[in-house]
Write a structure and sequence with these properties.
430 residues; alpha/beta; TIM Barrel; Lyase, Ornithine Decarboxylase, Chain A, domain 1; 9-stranded mixed beta sheet; 8-stranded parallel barrel
Length: 430
């Protein structure tokens, strides 16, 4: 059983002001989780969490995390802009991107962000377009398969990211010749795992590599960045990752490998998105249709344009029918949206209580990679984002799109523009 962080009375009050569908975020949960993470890694003096902006690119959420001592991990020009506007600067920003346009590097340098290079060819490119800073990081791809206890977690050899091991040594030497004095080392080898052994296994790889690079090049390794990958339990039966156990295992490996090598000043960084915000967001939607053909269908006012993961990955998201939490799960439904695509389904053959038209449904764990992956296929409009504040009140932190937003980027000729305005004056507020 998964419990919601909002109750039916609260949702009724919110929906009286803001129509469904919308994404709702739990301020209290986000803050408490950030504090747990920092407490877990407090043994490392330089520890810093760089929240992955791509997971939840909303300035209000970023501001909350800034207040809790987090930095931001950016991967694009606009993510840098959002972070700058919120007040992040300098080494509060980690810029980790790939196939990077020159404009992105130029802005990252202007903001004095910590840059994490994805490829050895980016050294000369960055030098030409924006210059090389004194502190820089390189992303490592060890290739092959990444295993934990003989279980394959992922296949880095198939990933487009990072330097090979020989390229790291060559790249460090090139960067030293260009004046770099302090280095970071970064890797991302598995996605959305709740296995407590992931970060420790990654730590061993990165710590050993850091010692080797220090011995080969004399480079000062200032920080090691574990990136993200620590996941959340989307299914009720899954066990969540224990961040305190993870941090203590990392500490043991730190003391085993780095401390004897005289590298006990290395800071640990993380770039968590899903772990930080995923469980503290949900998609609130209303049942608007039911269909009885070869299967039983419930149609929602939300669709894959509001939450892409089930359609794109076949991902499981738990569903609560609000007000019916304790009723028997005795009806089997496909829960769908209204896109002209048969994969637009939030659940397939899901056992739920009987759903009536007008029921409010909460789709869990959309606080990361939920709204952020939205799109406008079929002319669907992205929904609002609302914050459930610590005092129980709600705040609109992104309004829902309107047809005027959808049409705003068209390059109208005068005749077509007048047609739109004359036929739909209410949309264009004429």
């Amino acid at each position: 059983m998964k419990r919601t962080f909002v109750n039916l009375d609260q949702l009724k009050e919110i929906t009286s002001k803001y129509p469904t569908p919308f994404h709702l975020y739990d301020e209290k949960g986000i803050r408490e989780n950030a504090r747990r993470l920092h407490q877990a890694f407090a043994w490392n003096k330089g520890f810093k969490e760089y929240f992955a902006v791509k997971a939840t690119p909303n300035p209000t959420i970023l501001k909350i995390l800034k207040e809790e001592g987090c930095g931001v991990d950016c991967s694009s020009y606009t993510e840098l802009m959002i972070s700058d506007a919120v007040g992040f600067s300098g080494d509060e920003i980690m810029f980790s991107s790939n196939v990077t346009p020159k404009e992105d590097f130029i802005l990252a340098r202007k903001l004095n962000a910590a840059i994490n290079l994805d490829d050895i060819t980016h050294i000369e490119f960055l030098d030409q377009v924006a210059g090389i800073p004194e502190t820089i990081s390189c992303r490592y791809n060890p290739g092959g398969e990444f295993t934990i206890n003989n279980a394959i977690m992922d296949t880095p050899g198939e990933a487009k990211y990072g330097f090979t091991r020989p390229q790291l040594t060559e790249g460090f030497k090139m960067l030293q010749e260009k004046g770099v004095k302090h280095f970071g080392l970064h890797a991302f080898l598995a996605s959305n795992t709740t296995d407590n052994h992931y970060y420790p296994a990654l730590a061993r790889i990165l710590f050993e590599t850091a010692v080797e690079l220090n011995q080969e090049t004399g480079a000062h390794i200032a920080f090691i960045n574990f990136s993200g990958g620590v996941g959340i339990p989307y299914r009720p039966e899954q066990t969540p990752a224990d961040i305190f156990a993870i941090a203590q295992e990392v500490r043991k490996i730190y003391e085993e490998i780095l401390v004897p090598a005289g590298m006990d000043d290395v800071a640990i960084y993380t770039e968590l998105g899903r772990f930080m915000a995923g469980p503290y967001g949900c998609l609130v939607t209303t049942a608007i249709h039911e269909k009885h053909i070869h299967k039983e269908y419930i149609g929602l006012d939300a669709c894959a344009a509001n939450l892409m993961r089930p359609a794109m990955y076949g991902a499981y998201h738990h569903i609560t029918v609000m007000g019916k939490e304790d009723q028997a799960l005795d009806h089997e439904y496909d829960v769908t949206g209204g896109l002209c695509e048969n994969n637009d389904k939030f659940a397939i053959d899901r056992m739920l209580p009987k759903i009536d038209i007008g029921d409010l449904l909460v789709i869990h764990d959309t606080g990361a990679h939920g709204f952020a992956m939205g799109y406008n296929y079929n002319g669907k409009l992205r929904s609002a984002e609302i914050l459930l504040k610590e005092d129980g009140s709600s705040e609109l932190i992104r309004r829902a799109e309107t047809p005027a937003d959808y049409f705003a980027t068209f390059d109208y000729d005068d005749d077509l523009q007048s047609q739109f305005i004359n036929k739909y004056p209410e949309i264009f507020k004429i």
